[in-house]
Amino acid sequence: MEMVNSFNWGASGVSSRKGLSLNSPRYVSSPRVGGIRKSWISRSFQIVIVICLLLSFFLAIGCGYFYVFPSLSIAIHGYGIAQSQLQENGSLGTCDAFEGNWIRDVSYPLYNGSECPFAEQGFNCLANGRKDNEYLKWRWKPRSCDIPRFDVRGILEHLRGKRVVFVGDSMSRTQWESLICLLMTGVEDKKSVYEVNGNKITKQIRFLGVRFGTFNFTVEFFRSVFLVQQGLPPKRVPKRVKSTLKLDKLDDISREWIDSDVLIFNTGQWWTPSKLFLMGLYFEAGGLPKLGMPITTGYRTALATWASWVETMVNTNRTRVFFRTFEPSHWSDQRHRYCKVTQQPISETKGKDQSPYSDIISEVVNNMTVPVTILRVTLMGAFRSDAHVGTWSDAPSVVDCSHWCLPGVPDMWNEIVFSHLLAVDGFSPQRIN
C-alpha cells in the first residue's frame, strides 16, 4: 500500500522595470533609488532564507519519518495490515488483505507436520499417504500489498506472558493446531511445550491448552460449535425435538474466554439441517421453542447474543477480538459423498466465495460498539480445492472435502492475524519479497 503526500511549492515575486538600463544616459543614481534596491535585495534574501528553512524542516521530518520512527512507517504502510483494527471489510486504505490470489512459493510450507506433536494425525495428509506436495507450495498474495512472513521469534517474544484463545468448531481447532506448529519452529527446547492437562488432541474434548513454558504463554482451544448453549427443550414440544439451541444464551463455558489477550471465534459448519433438525436439535429463545425459525435467522440471533456478550464482558482495550468467516468446502454433491481434491488451486471460485453466514458475520460485527476484526477467509478458501483432507486422513474410508490439510490453508489465517497484531503493536517483521 502506498500513502503519498504531495506538497506543491509555488513562488511569485518577479519585479520588472521597463525602460531602465544601467547604461542609459537617462538613468541617474540616487540615494533613494539605491536604498530601494538594497531594500528589495534584503527582502529577497530573507524570502530565500525562509524557503530554505522550510525545505530543511520538511526534509528533516521526512527523514525522521522513515528512519527515526520506523514503527510509525510500518504502522501507516503496514504492508496492507497495520491499523488499530482492520476496517469492517478487512481493508486498510487502498489495500485489502483478503482480496487477492494464491501464488506459488517454494519456501512453503513453514513447518513439517510430522515434526509437530500437536498436529492432529487426521490432518497430516502427507503422513497419511498423499503423494503430491504441490498443495503445500502456495502463499496468499493480496492485490495491493504483501503479508509479512511469519516472524516466529518476534511473535514468541510478543506473546510472552499472554493468552491466545480460539473458540469454535473443528475448523477453529485446525487453526489452533496450525499456530502451535508454526510457533514450535522457533522453540529450541521442544519439551517446554506441552498440553496443560496432559491430554491428547481429540475431536470431542471441550478444552485443550498448550503452554510454551520458556515464553510463559498459552494457546488454548474451546470447543463450542454453535457459540450458544445447547440443552433440554422446554415442556410440551413435539417428540421430534430432542434438544434446543438457546439462541439468547452464550455457551456456559464463555466465562473461560474473557481473561485473554487474543480471542478468535468461528462458527458455521454445524449450522446445517443435517446437524440440526435431522438430529432433533431446534431453536429456542426466551424460553420458547422456535420450531419454524430458518437456520440463517437462528444464526443471526446467536451472533447477536455473542456480540452483546463481547460488548459487555470483554475488555477490548486489552483483548484483541477476531471473528473468522465461513470456510468453503468443495464437495461434488449436495449429500457430501463425493470429493474431488485437485492438485493445484482452481482459477474460478464457482460461487464458493459467497456465503450467507459470512454476510451475517459482517452485518453483526459492523453494528457492534467495540472493535472486532473480521477475518474474511471465504474467498481465500474458495480457490483451494487442492488443500482438503480428502481420503488422506486417519480414516481413509471417510472422505473429507471440508477440513484442511496441515500444513496448509489455516497457516495463512494465522499469518494474517499476527501480521496485524505485530504491525499495530509496533513490531517490524520482514516483508516478503
Automatic annotation (TrEMBL):
N-terminal signal peptide: none
Location of this chain's protein in the cell: Membrane
Principal localisation: membrane
A GO CC annotation given for this chain: Golgi apparatus
Pfam (any one): PC-Esterase
Domain Trichome birefringence-like C-terminal: 147-419
Membrane topology: Single-pass membrane protein
PANTHER family xref list: OS01G0880400 PROTEIN, PROTEIN TRICHOME BIREFRINGENCE-LIKE 9-RELATED
Name used for this protein in its record: Trichome birefringence-like N-terminal domain-containing protein
Organism from which the protein derives: Coptis chinensis
